[in-house]
Amino acid sequence: MVEVEAYRRLAEGALGRRIARVDAPDAWYLKGGLTAAVLDAALPGLKLTAARRKGKLLILDTARPRSDAAGPSLGLRFGMTGRLVLDGVAGVEELIYSSRRANPAWERFGLVFTDRSRLVMSDPRRLGGVILEPEEARLGPDAAALTLAELRSALSGSRVALKARLLDQSRVAGIGNLLADEMLWRAGLSPEREAGSLDGAELRRLHRHLISTLEQLSGRGGSHTGDLMPARRPGAACPKDGAPLRRATIGGRTTWWCPAHQR
Questions:
Q1: What is the number of other CB atoms lying within 10 angstroms of the CB of residue 15?
Q2: In terms of DSSP bridges, do strands 74-77 and 57-63 run parallel, antiparallel, or are they unpaired?
């Protein structure tokens, strides 16, 4: 989510530009039955009018240049290894699971504008994807603006592991694996806890650390800049209290936490 917000800001630099051509060389990267032919019929001639983000989804809105009638929206997902590049400048310079190299073979999708500038998705491991008219309503409230009441609603009554619930994009949109581990570590809450077991004080503490973690890591430049991040390796100790960290798979994702202070 932190990275996608950086991509949203980058994409704002292309607003007002008119699409001349769509480059979609990787059919697998197009999701929901989307094809290059559909994109070729839908987007050329339109201009970009807005760059929005909901959770980890970047949404580019379009319109017809003369009438300003709304065109289709384009949804971009980046996974762990996708980067957005505008005019040769990347929105995020470094991703921990990706490469900083520019390799044309990794360009999975792109928009070429009438001024010959380009907006490109580069993704070495093909973990992202592109969809036309994304179903935004299927996503929960955005984590960056999440209220305490919305967090309570997302967790209430659930016997699912706390981390797994936080990763459920239909409940809260935008929390990824590294962010979840970092905010739970800061909040002193075990990722194995049942999501609905938090009392009022714990819920308020989690909400406070959720918001502050997003703000701090956004300022630092990415989810990989968390204080727990250097210790996410075998044999490492908790940066807070020196206790051995524990590793497990929760919600289908590799999880690190400190059993000494995360309860």
A1: 13
A2: antiparallel
3-class secondary structure per residue, 14-68 = HCCCEEEEEECCCHHHECCCCCHHHHHHHCCCCEEEEEEEECCEEEEEEECCCCC
Dump pLDDT digits (tens) for 77-118: 998 889 999 999 988 876 665 666 678 899 999 999 999 999
93 with 197, same domain?
no
Using DSSP's 3-state secondary structure scheme, residue 228 falls into coil
* 242 and 155 within one domain: yes
Within a domain: 169: yes
Question: Helices 148-155 and 200-220, interaxial angle, to 10°?
Answer: 110
263, part of any domain: no
**Interatomic CA distance for residues 1 and 146, integer angstroms:** 13
Identify the domain boundary among 111, 136, 161.
136
Least Cα distance to 85 among 67, 101, 64, 65 occurs for 101
* pLDDT confidence tier of residue 44, bands split at 50, 70 and 90: very high
Q: Helical H runs in 112-263?
A: 148-155, 162-167, 177-187, 200-220
148 is in which domain, residue-wise? Answer: 140-257
Residue 131 counted as domain residue: yes
For residue range 137-186, what is the model confidence (pLDDT) as tens digits? 999 999 999 999 999 999 999 999 999 999 999 999 999 999 999 999 99
